[in-house]
């Protein structure tokens, strides 16, 4: 019988769909759901700009907003499904079967390096495309950079490099600052971009 797709109960070790992983609600806490909601709201605002109905876009600016909308939506879905854990489990199973489990540390480092390089290339290309865009659009790219840092650190945390992501100060965790902070910057930049594109009505002159 197929497992229930949405479940907050963790799977027993080795009894999941992929190793110990099964699809379910990965972070059922209020902060987790708030983060998901922010992801989707920010993605919707970015999509509105990319459609260009209210904002007069400059050059290839729409590419950035479409890319942000897609990435934010995907990260929002992944926030609860925890797909990166499925990838980790799949890698562990393949390494055991392939006989190269002892070399997994080197492969993990290579994977993180590749992620950093690809992220830097993607952000560099997007930055070049919007170099003449309004300040709000460039601010959104800054929020994306913060989110990118979170994604890389989060990926590294699966390989026991989790000191940064779990650090906290006055009850505020570092991952909240990186993740929610990045989302809020993109969301604020999107709202700013939409408002700056709406022409203001001329004020009536006194008679």
Quick recap:
With 207 residues, the protein is mostly helical. Helices cover 64% and strands 2% of the residues. A hairpin with a 2-residue loop joins β1 and β2 (172-173).
Radius of gyration: 20 Å
Work out the number of β strands.
Answer: 2
Globally, the shape reads globular
Instruction: Indicate how many domains the architecture comprises.
Output: 1
Structural class: mainly alpha
Description:
This protein is mainly alpha-helical and 207 residues long. It has one domain. A two-stranded antiparallel sheet has the order 1-2. β1 and β2 form a beta hairpin. α5 packs antiparallel against α6.
Features of this protein?
single chain; 207 residues; mainly alpha; two-stranded antiparallel sheet; 2 strands; globular; disordered N terminus; disordered C terminus
Which helices and strands occur, and which strands form pairs?
Blueprint: H1 30-51, H2 61-81, H3 83-98, H4 104-129, H5 135-157, E1 168-169, E2 172-173, H6 174-197
Antiparallel strand pairs: 1-2
């Amino acid at each position: 019988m197929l497992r229930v797709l949405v479940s907050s109960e963790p799977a027993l070790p080795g009894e999941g769909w992929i190793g110990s992983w099964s699809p379910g609600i990965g972070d059922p806490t209020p902060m987790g759901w708030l983060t998901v909601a922010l992801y989707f709201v920010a993605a919707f605002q970015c999509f509105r700009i990319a459609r260009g109905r209210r904002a007069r876009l400059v050059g290839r600016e729409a590419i950035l907003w479409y890319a942000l909308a897609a990435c934010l939506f995907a990260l929002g879905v992944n926030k609860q499904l925890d797909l990166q854990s499925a990838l980790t489990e799949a890698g562990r199973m393949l390494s055991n079967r392939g006989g190269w489990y002892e070399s997994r540390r080197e492969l993990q480092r290579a994977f993180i390096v590749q992620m950093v390089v690809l992220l830097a290339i993607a952000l560099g290309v997007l930055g070049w495309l919007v170099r003449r865009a309004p300040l709000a659009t460039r601010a959104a790219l800054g929020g994306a950079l913060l989110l990118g840092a979170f994604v890389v650190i989060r990926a590294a945390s699966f390989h026991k490099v989790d000191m940064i992501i779990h650090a906290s100060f006055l009850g505020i965790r570092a991952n909240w600052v990186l993740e929610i902070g990045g989302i809020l910057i993109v969301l604020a930049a999107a709202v700013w971009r939409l408002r700056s594109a709406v022409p203001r009505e001329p004020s009536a002159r006194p008679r």
